[in-house]
Design a protein that fits this description.
The chain is an alpha+beta fold and 237 residues long.
Length: 237
Amino acid sequence: MTESFLLQGFPISSPRGFLGWSNALLLDDAGVRIVVDTGGPGDRGTLMRRMQEVGLDPSSVAFLILTHLHFDHCLNLDLFPAATIVLSRAEHAYVATGAYRRAGDTGIPPYVLSLLDGRTLRFAEDELSVIAGVRVVATPGHTPGSLSVVYAVGGRHTVACADLVKNGWDFLSGPLSAQAKASLARVLLLGSRVIPGHDRPFVVEGAGIRYEGAREVELHVVRDPARGPTTTRWSFD
């Protein structure tokens, strides 16, 4: 099993709103390719370029796992036209019944289920084996139907838990709801290596965490029209 990032998540927000720079994963098990989440509309060009860089033909992706239906995790699903889409039945119902509106969940695009029209779907209940060595488990809390993906890479059990834990700070602070706390407890029984929704992977060590690797994010802001954009970079190491 190999793991690579098609999109790198960053723990960034602003008073204007949530930027939604989430992780998107590519798992490859002897040529069976699985993508986990697709990023949002602003990620489309970056995602397409990244697939070219790694030599990924999007039509070769066998399974697309959507951890939940927030805009920043699912809106490029059409780029993988042949993939069977794995989704929680509870998440589908959360949108189809309009429960997300009653919950005031502004992360759900009202048209998102139309993107699934004509697609092959596999609905997960509590747990579902996607292929041998890769399974999804229900970890509600961020949304009622949130899924985490469990697999082993490099001999280490890994849980890609999406926005159950958005970043390292969220993990150390602890989930807000009882449901999310129960889901996080389940996650920690499944693997000590965690890939959050919007941050680098980390390994849980006692009461703390140890990040893997480094990342750098770059922003371009036009402050002075006579001088062009100002570039600001942040390093995460």
